[in-house]
Amino acid sequence: MKQIFSALQYLHSNKISHRDIKPENFMLYQKEDLTCIKMIDFGLSKDFSQQGTMSTMSGSPYYIAPEVFLQKYNQQIDIWSMGVVLYIMLSGKVPFPGRDEREIIQNVIRGEFHFNHQAFQNVSEDCKDLINKCLIKDFRKRITAVEALKHPWIISKSDAGPESGTIGGGVSNQVLQGIDEILKCSKVKDAALNYLSQKVTPNNIEALQDALKNKDSEGSGFLPNEEFVRCLSMTHMKVTDREVQKLVEQLDGENSGKVNYQDFLKFSYLCQLYLNHYKLEVMLNELDTEKRGLITVAQLDEILQKSDHFNFPSSALDLVFTEMLGQNINNVDRNCIIKIEAFLESLKSQFEKQEGS
Predict the structure, then answer these.
(1) From residue 28, how far is each of 3, 24, 31, 207, 271 by CA, in Å?
(2) Where, residue-wise, is CATH 1.10.510.10 in the chain?
(3) What is the pLDDT of residues 159-170, one digit of tens each?
(4) CATH superfamily of 189-267
(5) 333 is known as an active-site residue
(6) Per mean pLDDT, which range of 56-65, 102-111, 159-168 is the poorest?
(7) Is the pLDDT of residue 193 over 70?
(8) Domain with CATH 1.10.238.10 in the chain
(9) How far apart are CA 6 and CA 92, in angstroms?
(10) Whole-number mean pLDDT of the chain?
(11) First CA to last CA across the chain, in angstroms?
């Protein structure tokens, strides 16, 4: 862990964020030497020296920091990802699990996790403290790479051998099996989020969906790799050859020559919905200066009219207002007060109904 945090400290001091920290992106320098590892795959890394913050989505869903959904973040997303990596390496579990993509995104945004797994019984409190400090939801309060290198757990392990039953020797087969399952099931999600890092809009996704389905005459949900790439170019999305190549490699993990585009489209669409939902939640809470959890219809309508921020289906919004207030938003008293939490829950429910229909 000290080597990894040292690598991040070097990157961050040079105003570079890796943006795709995960177990697969660390490799042994030599097969025979288990003491030296190297950070790899800088395909999503970015220089943040000019603007200070970044806005494009990037990374893998299990490891993605909640502030990324706001599209305004800095190098501290790497620290969040390191907290997730450390949690996984110790337990074989993810801190923010989910039965499907929707739940994973929700749990990451919520930012709540626990150490109740059996594997954590033999893990020191210092180690748990480091994980807690890495996974602080407010990135301004999150531990930095420099601070992590000074953490008691890192210092205590710098000259000693690996902690018994944790990282290094003594890892149980159950933990190793859990890690293997996590790595296997993240391929399509990795591909979707990496592609969304190129600012894919809902209109782009719809155009891509039409192009892919037109090419898939048999309706199998699969397309040859070259056809998938051709469809990407037809939608005029701004992607480089390197980004397209990486996307195809991730979607075609078994080297079958075909891409399962349906899973990719589904997850991309869900990411857009929850990205907008999270942005809306933050903006509503900022307007609620008295922290009463209330907002007027006029304030809400003003936010929703900002087309550059949101692209919610109008049918979903109409159903939400009809369900909550008994009439369309255009006919509601502008001074009517609604509960922010109830509105967001109702909106999310409409997403789920429309996505399942």
Answers:
(1) 12, 11, 6, 42, 33
(2) 2-185
(3) 555 443 344 445
(4) EF-hand (1.10.238.10)
(5) no
(6) 159-168
(7) no
(8) 189-267
(9) 24
(10) 79
(11) 46
